[in-house]
Structure formats: C-alpha cells, structure tokens
Amino acid sequence: MPNISRDEVAHLAKLARLAVTDDELDVFAGQLDQILDSVAKVSEVATEDVPPTSHAVPLTNVFREDEIRPCFTQQQALAGAPAAEEGRFRVPRILGEEQ
C-alpha cells in the first residue's frame, strides 16, 4: 500500500497547477513512494565520521588574475555599431512594452 494517497497527489498537482487524470494519480502515487523510499535509504547512510562540506572535493580557483591589457577605444568599439548615442550602443527599447 502506498504511503502517499491519491488525495495527496491530487493536492500536490493542484499546488503545481498540473492537470492530471485519475490514472496518473495512481501512477504518480507509486512513483512518489519510490522516490521517498530512496531518499529515506540515503538518509540511513552512516555519516557520523564525515564532516559537513559544501563540496565533495576541495575547490581551486581556475581563473586567471585580472590584468589591464590594451583594447579598443570607445570610438573604435562604436565604429562598427549600427547606431550609437552619447558614447553608447543604441538598441531598440524592450522594457515597458506591452506583450
């Protein structure tokens, strides 16, 4: 017998705004039971000797240091732009439009 009832699955589906059929309620109840059983088994693992960590392996920063290097001037960068205004790229307005 499943630990999750059809009513609970229907309630979860309603909260998630999912339309489910009666047949799907039975299927999902069984699937959710399997998921909860699997999670319960994971929680049974002996972890007393394992310190809490955010990652399984130590992290190392693989990014390079920031360096100032020569680059385009503002005028050079804007030279290929289809439109520029006040030293910036001009693009079509997208905010505040009705959809």
TL;DR of this structure?
The chain has 99 residues and is mainly alpha-helical. The protein has helices spanning 6-15, 22-43, 74-79; strands at 84-85, 88-89. A hairpin with a 2-residue loop joins strand 1 and strand 2.
CATH architecture term of the domain at 6-43: Orthogonal Bundle
Number of helices: 3
CATH names the topology of the domain at 6-43 as Histone, subunit A
CATH class type of the domain at 6-43 = Mainly Alpha
Low-confidence stretches: none
Note the overall shape: flat
Give me the secondary-structure category: mainly alpha
Number of strands: 2
Radius of gyration: 28 Å
- Amino-to-carboxy terminus distance: 49 Å
Q: For the report, how would you describe the main beta sheet?
A: 2 strands, antiparallel
- Average pLDDT, to the nearest integer? 87
The percentage helix is 25-40%
Which key terms come to mind for this protein?
99 residues, mainly alpha, two-stranded antiparallel sheet
Please provide a written account of the structure.
InterPro entries: Asp/Glu-ADT_sf_sub_c, GatC. It is an enzyme of class 6 (ligase). Heterotrimer of A, B and C subunits. The protein has 99 residues and is mainly alpha-helical. It has a domain at 6-43: Orthogonal Bundle (Histone, subunit A). It is built from 3 helices and 2 strands, in the order αααββ. It has helices at residues 6-15, 22-43, 74-79, and strands at residues 84-85, 88-89. It has a two-stranded antiparallel sheet with strand order 1-2. The longest helix has 22 residues, at 22-43. The radius of gyration is 28 Å and the shape is flat. The mean pLDDT is 87.
